[in-house]
């Protein structure tokens, strides 16, 4: 199978060729010690070959494959497609239970995958869940609806508290969660606060652990792959802190490349440093992770090119990237490969898909304009009809 894609005017094309993946046997399914649910086995590594040389003609496939990549489907990590969030929550929820909490509070954007994963994880553990969700000033007093992550959160009975973007940026996520915490304590509850994206030093362990799993999978696989690079999206910083620390401590020693979808690389270096210091890691984030900007139009906003890219990858591979995180990171990676081919030439790359499928539902209007593969079925007069209305099933 082959995928050709244009990543913007004048960028030419890049070709992905899917090769047979190696499925880790069922007994290797990851066991979540805290939440007590087995995560499904990774489809790891699903190999991709990405030639760095590219043709100027969008219809002419490139012949030579200088690079190859693998896809680690952390989007299939369990718990209603929880992606990377479930890894951090394993540790955070364990702490909540150990501290005797009866409820959790967390905070994020209106389509936060982390908030949705927390809502589900809370119910697995019989905890109440309170979410503070950031939305536009225009929508903050209206029912937020049931699109994407909101549907799962509300089905799972999470208590949704809306906050405007303006209030959020003026008050800050820490104060907002503390205000709600105080209120709940006064009402007799025992809430545990989880920060934005589950990204604190404790949650960071989730991705240190993920590296251990990748390492084991490589060791047990038939090919002895040595990855040069790990590529992943960065939204709140915990995933890259854990991955880069894990990679530098393990036999992997792969260079971690983060594509940030909000804020800027400097902010994330400083934030990741705080998480690493909290673990007494004794390393500098600038030495172990390279962060590039893939924000584009802004957090959770997409250009048509980005969404077209997500559509092309889905149509060619069946892998559904999300529009806010992995879609932007993969798009940013390919753009960088095209602009800086030397940097990536000959590298073995592991791209980590961190989930977020439900966020696509928030983009249906924008996607509709370039998804047109439907038609009315042609049943002309020669196709025999039954009397009456016919049988439905
Ligand atoms: C699907 C998805 N991928 C990646 C990320 C980024 O991970 P992190 O917040 O740890 O930087 C997030 C959340 O922010 C996410 O929801």
UniProtKB/TrEMBL annotation:
It is an enzyme of class 4 (lyase). Pfam families: PALP (PF00291). Its cofactor is pyridoxal 5'-phosphate. One of its GO terms (molecular function) is D-cysteine desulfhydrase activity. It is found in: Mitochondrion. One of its GO terms (cellular component) is mitochondrion. Belongs to the ACC deaminase/D-cysteine desulfhydrase family. This is D-cysteine desulfhydrase. NCBIfam families: ACC_deam_rel. It catalyses: D-cysteine + H2O = hydrogen sulfide + pyruvate + NH4(+) + H(+). Its EC number is 4.4.1.15. GO terms for biological process: D-cysteine catabolic process; ethylene biosynthetic process; stress response to cadmium ion. Keywords: Lyase, Mitochondrion, Pyridoxal phosphate, Transit peptide. InterPro entries: ACCD_DCysDesulf, D-Cys_desShydrase, TrpB-like_PALP, TrpB-like_PALP_sf. Its main location: mitochondrion. Residues 82-355 form the Tryptophan synthase beta chain-like PALP domain. Transmembrane segments: none annotated.
């Amino acid at each position: 199978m082959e995928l050709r894609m244009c990543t913007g005017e004048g960028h030419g094309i890049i070709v992905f060729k899917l090769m047979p993946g190696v499925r880790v046997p069922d007994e290797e399914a990851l066991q979540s010690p805290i939440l007590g649910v087995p995560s499904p086995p990774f489809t790891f590594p699903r190999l991709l070959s990405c030639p760095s040389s590219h043709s100027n003609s969008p219809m002419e496939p490139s012949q030579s494959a200088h690079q190859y990549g693998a896809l680690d489907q952390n989007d299939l990590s369990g718990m209603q497609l929880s992606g990377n969030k479930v890894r951090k929550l394993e540790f955070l929820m364990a702490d909540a239970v150990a501290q005797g909490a009866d409820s959790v509070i967390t905070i994020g954007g209106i389509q936060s995958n982390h908030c949705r994963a927390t809502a589900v994880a809370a119910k697995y553990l019989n905890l109440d869940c309170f979410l503070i969700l950031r939305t536009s000033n225009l929508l903050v007093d209206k029912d937020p609806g049931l699109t994407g992550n909101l549907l799962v959160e509300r089905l799972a009975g999470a208590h949704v508290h809306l906050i405007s973007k303006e209030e959020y940026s003026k008050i800050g996520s820490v104060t907002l969660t503390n205000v709600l915490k105080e209120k709940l304590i006064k009402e007799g509850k025992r809430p545990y606060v989880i920060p934005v994206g589950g990204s604190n030093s404790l949650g960071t362990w989730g991705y240190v652990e993920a590296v251990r799993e990748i390492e084991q999978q490589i060791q047990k696989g038939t090919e002895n792959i040595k990855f040069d690079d790990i590529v992943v999206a960065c939204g709140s910083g915990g995933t890259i802190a854990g991955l880069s620390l894990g990679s530098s401590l393990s036999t992997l020693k792969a260079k971690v490349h983060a594509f940030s979808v909000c804020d800027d690389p400097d902010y994330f270096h400083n934030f990741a440093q705080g998480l690493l210091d909290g673990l007494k890691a004794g390393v500098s984030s600038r030495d172990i992770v390279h962060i590039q900007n893939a924000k584009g139009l802004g957090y959770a906003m997409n250009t048509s090119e980005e969404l077209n890219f997500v559509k092309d990858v889905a149509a060619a591979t069946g892998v559904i990237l999300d529009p806010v995180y992995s879609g932007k990171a993969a798009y940013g990676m390919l753009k960088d490969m095209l602009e800086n081919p030397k940097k990536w030439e000959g590298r073995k790359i592991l791209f980590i898909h961190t989930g977020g499928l439900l966020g696509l539902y928030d983009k249906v209007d924008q996607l509709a304009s370039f998804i047109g593969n439907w038609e009315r079925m042609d049943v002309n007069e020669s196709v025999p009809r039954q009397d009456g209305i016919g049988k439905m099933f």
